[in-house]
Amino acid sequence: ICVEELAQLGVRTFLRIGTTGAIQPHINVGDVLITTASVRLDGASRHFAPLEYPAVANFECTTALYNAAKAKGIEPYVGVTASSDTFYPGQERYDTYSGKVYRDYQGLLKQWQDLNVMNYEMESSTLFTMCSALGLRAGMVAGVIVNRTQQEI
């Protein structure tokens, strides 16, 4: 709703600035991640483009976020994010009320680690797909609040 209505008012650039959980062992709590593209594990982005359409951040937004981090003396990690609709099963979290993760989601964490995905979060694939399909610009930067190879939240 927000992107659609702000675009109608003339906004053309959207930045997701937030938190995330790292899934690579070398990324630490407190590190900064800049997302170049997202694995589309969501449902909403399908309303804007077919699954074959990539969820890619705008190059100018990504470059600006990178340059801003460097100007502050921060060495950000730059790469691919996995973006899921859900915090628990979609991110293969077993620390839930039921303790269950359905078969389709079991093993995904390891798969994304093996494919060098940096982190899990819940917004970027929809934001990137929607903005790109509508001719808008989007970027994402997030601070790491947990490393899932070391602990859960």
Mean pLDDT: 95
**Architecture, according to CATH?**
3-Layer(aba) Sandwich
**CATH topology, anyone?**
Rossmann fold
Biggest pleated sheet: 5 strands, mixed, barrel
Strand content: 25-35%
CATH class: Alpha Beta
Number of helices: 4
Distance separating the two termini: 29 Å
Q: Tell me the number of strands.
A: 6
Number of separate structural domains? 1
Write down the secondary-structure element order: HEEEHEHEHE
Q: In the CATH hierarchy, what is the superfamily?
A: Nucleoside phosphorylase domain
Helix amount: 10-25%
Oligomer: single chain
Q: Order of strands side by side in the largest beta sheet?
A: 1-5-4-2-6
Rounded to the nearest angstrom, the radius of gyration is 15 Å
Please describe what this structure looks like.
This protein is an alpha/beta fold. It has one domain (15-84, 100-147): Rossmann fold (3-Layer(aba) Sandwich), CATH 3.40.50.1580. The protein contains four helices and six strands, in the order αβββαβαβαβ. It has a five-stranded mixed barrel with strand order 1-5-4-2-6. The longest helix is centred in the middle third of the chain and has 13 residues, at 59-71. Residues 6-144 form the Nucleoside phosphorylase domain.
Write the layout of secondary structure elements.
Elements: H1 2-8, E1 13-22, E2 32-41, E3 55-56, H2 59-71, E4 77-84, H3 108-114, E5 119-121, H4 124-133, E6 137-147
Parallel strand pairs: 1-6, 2-4, 4-5
Antiparallel strand pairs: 1-5, 2-3, 2-6
Task: Sum this structure up briefly.
By secondary structure, the protein is an alpha/beta fold.
